[in-house]
Amino acid sequence: MSARSLTDQDVFAIGRLDAHDQAALVQAGELAAADLVEAAIRRIERLDGALQSLSHHAFEQARREAAELDRAAEKGATRAAMAGVPWLAKDSLDHPGMPTRAGSRSRRDTPMAHGHAYVDRLIAQGLVAVGKSAMPEFGLLASTEPLLGPTTRNPWSLAHSPGGSSGGAAAAVAAGLVPLAQGSDGGGSIRLPSSCCGIVGLKPGRDTTVRVRGRHLVEDLLVADSLHARSVRDVAWGFAATHPQPSHAMVRSSSPRRLRIAVIERGLRGTSPDSDVRDALVRTASLCASLGHAVEFVDWPLDGHTFMAAFEDLWSHLAADAVDATLPTLGGRRIEDACEPWTLGLAERARRLPTTALEAAYRQIATLPQQLASFFSRYDVVLSPVTNTPAPPLGTFAPTLPVDALAQSMFAWIDYTPLQNMAGTPAISLPLSHSGTGLPIGSMFAADRGQEDTLLTLAYELEAAAPWADRWPAHSVAHSPG
Tens digit of pLDDT per residue, the chain (482 long)? Predict the structure, then answer.
């Protein structure tokens, strides 16, 4: 079969497959790498007009790269494991031949000459990027509504946000445009959109992936990267493929080991989730108990108010760094025409902070491992909400809202996720529930450092016990013409 002979039915049927099953079609000779890429392009052309999950199309580049993979195979080269599987790079990830705008009007459209080791690993595995996914400016907001555009919509409800900052990535995967999309998580930016869009999102622990971006004092501590997907095996593969140890084995199945699971209902500042989220948490805890795991409702053993204040200080410094880097590039423009009000407001907040605030924030990071060591000696895994409500309506976290009010509402909404970024520990969001109105609600499982495989093993078991593969949003390959 050639790309020219793919029917609309074929294109959408391929989109309902995960990355492993798409790759298997190429390995078996049923399709060429170029066919998988062309099918993804056609799905994007048909479906993304409503979602606006892509910020940059790289269709011709992707076609060339896929054709090169096919030519190499015809000459006898061994196919890479994921040859031809289409994916999206987040707009903050440097990828050869594509611009990196990070959702900001301040960045130019100049294509990058090369990426870092993370991108090199994915390309070596045969993945073909068909474009960039949309994100909020510099990844600083929990909704994907940058003034640069586009505003990304949730495929479960176009009136709602897909979350952020990897909102375009999650929306595209949830809709079946591509089976894989890279996300980065500095305060929940993989887990938040995964929960909002009903897919799997792993935030790895510190130092468990090869270099993703240039060095940065705050980002190197807070930010982790992985591939969003609809299946646990795709996420597990992405983690293993980008691990610093090339021989790191991919987790492939569940385990007979039963875990001690601590269930934490309240956010770090003591806020309670809404009834839909609480009901989802209780259902997930009951599911774990029915599988033989020991479940106990507890609280985090730390001062969440002090912790979140330190996180907000670091978040403000990220904005200030972005603004400082933009100022020399303005060329006569006003900074207000280059950076959004939210970014500028956070940057101004950072400038007002005393240096001792940074000292306190780094002290929090330094002491967290010891604070959590005793806790994780009693529990293997923590189950909690990802956010305190399901996906909010678009506009709830718009970057033009008054900064103080926006800070209060957004940081309250993400009251569960920043702990793992500060601690450098792993966590995963699994699509186990829905709200009364049909919006996805993720369940977050977190563990101590080095326990990504524990989380993935549990995820396999929960995926088998409460399958989600056949649950698709209204705006997706499962409900489209063809």
Answer: 455 589 999 999 999 999 999 999 999 999 999 999 999 999 999 999 999 999 999 999 999 999 999 999 999 999 999 999 999 999 999 999 999 999 999 999 999 999 999 999 999 999 999 999 999 999 999 999 999 999 999 999 999 999 999 999 999 999 999 999 999 999 999 999 999 999 999 999 999 999 999 999 999 999 999 999 999 999 999 999 999 999 999 999 989 999 999 999 999 999 999 999 999 999 999 999 999 999 999 999 999 999 999 999 999 999 999 999 999 999 999 999 999 999 999 999 999 999 999 999 999 999 998 889 899 999 999 999 999 999 999 999 999 999 999 999 999 999 999 999 999 999 999 999 999 999 999 999 999 999 999 999 999 999 999 999 999 999 999 986 54
Domain assignment present for residue 118? The answer is yes
DSSP-assigned letters across all residues of 404-428:
HHHHHHHHHHTTTSHHHHHHT--EE
In Å, the largest CA–CA distance within the chain is 64
Expressed as residue numbers, the domain containing 223 is 3-303+361-479
Q: What is the CATH number of the domain that holds 76?
A: 3.90.1300.10
Whether residue 321 is contained in a domain is answered as: no
Distance CA 51, CA 59 (A): 18
Is there a domain that residue 313 lies in? Answer: no
Q: State the Cα–Cα distance between residues 201 and 212, nearest whole angstrom.
A: 17
On whether residue 460 sits in a domain, the answer given is yes
Domain count, the chain: 1
Question: Does 203 participate in catalysis according to the annotation?
Answer: no
Q: Is 90 a catalytic residue?
A: yes
**Choosing from 55, 106, 157, 165, which is the catalytic residue?**
165
User: Model's pTM, two decimal places?
Assistant: 0.98
Known catalytic residue at 253: no
